[in-house]
Amino acid sequence: MQALAAASKTVDCLKLVHSLHAIFLIAGDNNMPIIYQVHRERDGTSFATRKVEAKQKGLVMFTLIVSFQKEELGFEHQAAIMPDVPPPEQLLNMEEIRERRLTDPRFPMQYRNSAAKKKFVPWPIEMRFCQDSKSQHEPR
């Protein structure tokens, strides 16, 4: 928090925090003061970037990289409406998709036989896939 405060004191007050990344490099000592050194990486019209190093005994123990941005109108990339998709419990997982493909007459018999011989190794996390409505249903 102190590193962010130090960085923000070097930036135009109309610029707000846009993103930040913090890295703890080594353990600090609670009984020693911390020196915050702010580096002005970039000062633009809309954006400003700062790198802050927190030091003890001359060693950098923490680094913060923070980007500030002036509020302005622009492209709203997160305003898109989510597509209408079924809830996850109604979607197929990898094993279910594999089973359907093994029995789907639209796939060549050679492919189905080859795929059936391969051992199925489940993924370490369960994933469910959204597909178009035609491929979600049993073959016609």
From TrEMBL:
InterPro entries: Acyl-CoA_hotdog (IPR042171), Acyl_CoA_thio (IPR003703), HotDog_dom_sf (IPR029069), TesB_ACOT8-like_N (IPR049449). It comes from the Eukaryota. Residues 2-69 form the Acyl-CoA thioesterase-like N-terminal HotDog domain. GO terms for molecular function: fatty acyl-CoA hydrolase activity. One of its GO terms (biological process) is fatty acid catabolic process. Belongs to the C/M/P thioester hydrolase family. This is Acyl-CoA thioesterase-like N-terminal HotDog domain-containing protein. It comes from Aegilops tauschii subsp. strangulata. The lineage of its organism: Eukaryota, Viridiplantae, Streptophyta, Embryophyta, Tracheophyta.
